[in-house]
Amino acid sequence: MELRHIRYFVAAAEQLHFGRAADVLSVTRPAVSQTIADLETELGVKLFEREAQKVVLTTAGETFLKHGRTILEDVTKAVQMTKRVGEGKLGLLTIGYGSLGLRHPLFREAIKQMGVRYPDTDLTLTETPSTTQMEEVRSGKIDAGFVYVAQDSPDSTMPIPHSDAIGELNSMVLEEGGIGIALPRDHPLAGNDGLDLADFEREGFIVVGPSMANAYFPFRPRIVQQVSNINTQINLISVGMGVGLVVVSPSLIYPDDIHVMPLKNINYHSQFRLIWQRGSQDPLLQNFVATVRELSVDR
């Protein structure tokens, strides 16, 4: 049995006339009659009672019509969905981001635009550090990730991975950045331009992870809190617990209750990047990458 047999049968059953069914199908009447006869032979039952000017469905024919319509509807849906998946307009993507990436307008706009451009797609967002995102893209656990990486030597950076860790993965640079210092909004030095790290020697530092006591410090920093993520660091700074080194870039947005400013005499380079697996043929992922690329060019 072929799909053609079902399509011919449903047309004949809906028209109750082989000639009109032939017109609907754009075939000859003998072609319809022979196809129905072949179908009845294969099933071993009569689907129609033939009369002079019309045909009438048998009980078996009425049953087969109900299921035949369902089969044709399912095939139509399958074809439509397959085309949409192939065009990258339907499917599921899992996207990683870090607490710092969440603050970047490009990340927010990319997620928003995917919903506008491809409303039938499902995006699953998972918050995880940049290093973990790289591992999960490699393993296929996530499809792509927004990461921050350092361009400087690994032994003198902020607690973000070095760009070399991206390795064989595809990546796209979204924005270049540097290093700055975050202060409580009411800190006496907030708003003073042209300061360097030595001006904060008497301050207590809130650090993310075990890093920070590195080559950038011209003094041994007094660490008052060591936290696991940037959000906690920012929150503690906002309530006056201390100050902290943070990544800065032209578009990166920090909360209004802290003051972030660049520092003199520190040559530190960071990058905000999108990463994804090299060689992936997933059309939806390709559309996502194209959307991010378009947004990054427009900025």
Automatic annotation (TrEMBL):
Start and end residues of each HTH lysR-type domain: 1-58
The keyword Nucleotidyltransferase is annotated on this UniProt entry: no
GO CC annotations, alphabetized: protein-DNA complex
Classification via CDD domains: PBP2_LTTR_aromatics_like (cd08414)
Coiled-coil zones: none
InterPro entries named in the record: LysR_HTH_N, LysR_subst-bd, WH-like_DNA-bd_sf, WH_DNA-bd_sf
Molecular function in Gene Ontology: DNA binding; DNA-binding transcription factor activity
Keyword terms of this UniProt record: DNA-binding, Transcription, Transcription regulation
Entry's family note: Belongs to the LysR transcriptional regulatory family.
Official protein name in the record: Transcriptional regulator, LysR family
